[in-house]
């Protein structure tokens, strides 16, 4: 395939994402673990099996010596873009966003990795925290209820594609797990809070109202989820994460 004819839409340290005709193509760096690439493809298929209308896996192949995942292209704008250009309707967009998240969480995908186990592995691998901090976080994690809801892991408006007819599609299922929906909500809250604390608070209020969940319960997940992100190469800043790890003081 001639990638020169494709449009580069996202670039990360370990991958480049292109739009090419009817496909989204994720081309991974040669050093990126092969097992992670195939796991992402497998987890996408497992989410497909829930019946959610997501970009379907088309194929995996090598391009110029690099592994690439081909996914179905969904035409539209991101919800993030729509919220940015139309701030007057922020409340309505947030309502739709939360409704979509709760629809996702109503599904079951029993073959996906377990969220609590994944969080525990991530926390255990963190070198920025000492043994006592890791112990406190793992103790809190162990005490949290164990659910089997479908969790996206990176549910934010940039991963929602809105078609011209208004239909919303959730993309990028690389971090999908099965677990507690409030943990997934805590992750979404952190993603909002990184950019705008007021919008994050609006999200949390809306999510808790629609799901009949105590705000304090989602907040109990914040140090756990923030700590887990220290183990990942992502957009969340270390100082920002450390603030949320410390803010609850493990109460």
Can you offer a commentary on this structure?
The protein has 251 residues and is of the alpha+beta class. It contains 9 helices and 10 strands. It has helices at 34-48, 79-85, 90-105, 115-124, 131-143, 181-195, 197-211, 215-229, 238-247; strands at 7-11, 15-20, 23-28, 57-63, 66-72, 77-78, 149-151, 160-162, 168-170, 177-179. A 5-stranded antiparallel sheet has the order 1-2-3-5-4, with helices on one face. α4 packs antiparallel against α5 (131-143), α6 (181-195) crosses α8 and α8 (215-229) packs across α9 (238-247). The chain starts with 6 loop residues before the first strand and ends with a helix. The mean pLDDT is 93.
> What's the story with the biggest beta sheet?
5 strands, antiparallel
Question: What is the straight-line distance between the termini?
Answer: 54 Å
Looking across the biggest beta sheet, what order are the strands in? Answer: 1-2-3-5-4
Oligomer: single chain
User: Compute the gyration radius: what is it?
Assistant: 18 Å
Give the number of helices: 9
The poorly predicted ranges are none
The helix fraction, in percent, is 40-55%
- Amount of beta strand: 15-25%
Mean pLDDT: 93
Shape: globular
* Helix/strand structural class: alpha+beta
Q: Order of SSEs, N→C?
A: EEEHEEEHHHHEEEEHHHH
In total, how many beta strands? 10
């Amino acid at each position: 395939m001639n990638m020169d004819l494709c449009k580069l839409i996202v670039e990360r340290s370990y991958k480049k994402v292109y739009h090419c005709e009817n496909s989204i193509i994720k081309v991974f760096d040669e050093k990126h673990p092969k097992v992670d690439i195939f796991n992402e493809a497998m987890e996408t298929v497992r989410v497909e099996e829930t019946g959610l209308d997501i970009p379907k896996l088309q194929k995996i192949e090598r391009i110029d010596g690099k592994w690439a995942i081909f996914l179905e292209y969904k035409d539209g704008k991101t919800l993030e873009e729509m919220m940015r250009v139309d701030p007057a309707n922020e409340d309505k967009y947030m309502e739709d966003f939360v409704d979509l998240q709760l629809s996702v969480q109503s599904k079951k995908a029993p073959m996906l990795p377990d969220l609590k186990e994944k969080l525990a592995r991530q926390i255990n691998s963190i070198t920025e925290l000492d043994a006592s901090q890791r112990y406190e976080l793992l103790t809190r994690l162990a005490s949290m209820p164990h659910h089997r809801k479908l969790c996206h892991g990176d549910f934010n408006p940039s991963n929602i594609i809105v078609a011209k007819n208004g239909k919303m599609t959730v993309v990028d299922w690389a971090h999908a797990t099965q677990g507690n929906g409030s943990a997934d909500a805590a992750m979404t809250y952190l993603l909002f809070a990184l950019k705008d604390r007021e919008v994050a608070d609006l999200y949390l209020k809306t999510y808790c109202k629609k799901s009949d969940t105590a705000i304090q319960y989602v907040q109990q997940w914040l140090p756990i989820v923030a700590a887990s992100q220290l183990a990942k190469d992502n957009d969340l800043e270390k100082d920002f994460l450390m603030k949320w790890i410390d803010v609850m003081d493990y109460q």
